[in-house]
Amino acid sequence: MDSSKRSHWSSRWAFILVTVGSAVGLGNIWKFPFMTGTNGGSAFVLVYLACVVGIGVPLLMAEAMLGRRGQGDPVDAMRSLAREAGASRLWLAIGYIGIVGALLILSFYSVVAGWILEYTVRAVGGFQGMDKAMLGEVFAGLLADPLRLVAWHTVFMALSAGVVLGGVTAGIERANKIMMPGLFAILLGLLGYGAVAADLSAAFRFLFHFEPKAIDAQVVLAAMGHAFFTLSLGMGAIMTYGSYLGREISIARTSLVVATADTLVALLAGLAIFSFVFAQGLEPAVGPGLILQTLPLAFSTMPFGDVVGLLFFVLVVFAAWTSSISLIEPATAYLVEHFSLGRRAAVLLVSLLVWLLGVAVALSFNDWSGFKVFGLGLFDLLDTLTSKIMMPLAGLLIALFTARVMQRAHVESEIGLGGRAFGLWYGVLRYVSPVAIVLIFLNVIGVIG
Ligand code: PHE
Q1: C-beta separation of 264 from 26 below 8 A
Q2: Residue 172: CB within 6 Å of ligand 1?
Q3: Which pTM does this prediction carry?
Q4: pLDDT band (50, 70, 90) for residue 281
């Protein structure tokens, strides 16, 4: 495929920034802390770290590599790679699963991001004087209000679509260049505040005090699924961003930087959040409401809580926004490159589809809460379908395609890893990742429990 016509990031750092922007999202700041809270703290953290190193990083490199070598949207990239390898067209499934999965994720991601927007606006007025019961009512009231949920979902989709409309460099790259430094600055500020005014050492103990007893099969599986989600794996986002990467850049080294940054943000955000929670003597294991109910309670009583609270929610908005644009781009690139649609029409079409599904997600919390498939409401259904089925499946196929279908010499020339490091990475993709992922599947379908 002719790569001269496609847009490219302006530098290696631009690629790192946008990819970190995709990876760092609600997964790090909303999902990771509450999952750590409900899965036994340090045990979950340890297994999650092992999964990032053993499965996540090798797959991140592989997915970015496929994108750059394929030079196309996820479907077209897989088409040219399969042709190059003389392999079946069935491998195009990697592209389709990614594009569809990204849209499914965005439909509920945008609804959660909408909650965050509501809380950002509330944080402007501060949480002073609110007690536990009142904060519980605020969250329950929001979930029960279809119009409010849909309105915020609409705002968030418009924000995300607006950036993607601007294109690869003028839209996506520019937005990340503004928001990501802002995100890091706020995060460090919050952490400093946590060290001085809250209970950072209790947070540290909670996250890193190793307790092997607390590790069970459930914790391992939750941690593996989360490693996929937080690194944006298998959903075409990394592949599409990789396809805009120049030939001269080392995929291996940049992927390592991205994974390290994503992990650091999760750990630092976790430290900051739990330092506030413990300083106020609050409970860590409350579930998805952790940053929406428990954290504002901490903000309501701590010194400078209003400022800290507002900065915190701005940080979460930045994180969610730079991730959602990476969920719109794969389908947009597909429509533009495959059907020669204009970018504007493609973005509108994609956003409209996601918006409609998101409306159904918003209604699943209230008017349509009776609608269940396999006992799951639409929100949980989409989360389960993507994180527990589509992402691991795409990851499995990517590992197999890279290390068993593509010519080894092509992989070696593209990835930028030499000698022993290449052998290690290749071996992990050939054996370790597929076996680990198959074990997740067997658990999901109940063969092993
Ligand atoms: N990694 C993002 C997060 O942690 C979510 C995401 C998943 C983004 C898949 C793109 C693709 O919030």
Answers
A1: no
A2: no
A3: 0.94
A4: confident
